[in-house]
Amino acid sequence: MPTSPLTRVFVVCTALLCAIATVTAGYSTVADWLKLPANRPQLGNMHGDIAVSSKGEVFVSVQDPAAGLQVYGPDGAFLRNVPGAPSDFHGFVIRTQPEGEFLYGATLRGQTIVKMRLDGQIVMTIGSSIVPDEFKVRNTGSNELQLLLTGLDVAPNGDIYAADGYASDYIHRFDRTGKYLNSFGGKEAPYSFNTLHKLAIASRF
């Protein structure tokens, strides 16, 4: 069946848009971009996370109490440490919401989820006690049930999804106020998760 001129134009435009998107989505490395503070010869162990604010500032956690939560400018220059921020953020994201821009972080040893302003003001902490014990793993050393949170993300409606990747491999869900909603996943079928880490919510589905 012959195609109409309108169809041919649509196909050509679509192909051009795909080509433009492919070109503009390219990335390249910048050598020696990061400028460490004078008292730190190395960034840290990198067992943490990175997120970028709406201003282009780069927030870095390396799970080092001496390093804290570091902030670098778009040019790579060290700007500051975030006062009062937990030093054991294993995973975190920065999200803009109607009431402001916030960092949501999962602390590995602290077994908490923290919501804080980018200046370090903590506005909400979700402790492990509200997660049912059936979704926790017993620590062989302390014999206590625990979470070992590795990452999280925040849905458009404010729901928080946190991965317990170093323990049960369940994903725990909370509403925007920190109320526990449910847990799903785990190591068994049909999910068969194994060491869950970074989460990303695809709102297009």
Folded structure, characterized:
The structure is a single chain. This protein is mainly β and 205 residues long. It is built from 1 helix and 14 strands. The protein has one helix at residues 5-24, and strands at residues 49-52, 58-61, 69-72, 78-81, 89-97, 100-107, 112-117, 122-127, 137-138, 145-146, 151-154, 160-163, 170-174, 180-185. Strands 1-2-3-4 form a 4-stranded antiparallel β-sheet, with no helix packed on it. A 4-stranded antiparallel β-sheet has the order 5-6-7-8, with no helix packed on it. The model is unreliable at 5-20 (pLDDT under 50).
Strand content: 25-35%
Query: Approximately how much helix is present in the residues?
Result: under 10%
Spatial arrangement of strands, main beta sheet: 1-2-3-4
Query: What's the total number of strands?
Result: 14
Which segments are poorly predicted (pLDDT under 50) over 5 or more consecutive residues? 5-20
Please state the average pLDDT score. Answer: 88
Choose one word for the global shape.
Answer: globular
Structural class: mainly beta
Distance between the termini: 33 Å
> What is the radius of gyration computed over CA atoms, rounded to a whole number of angstroms?
21 Å
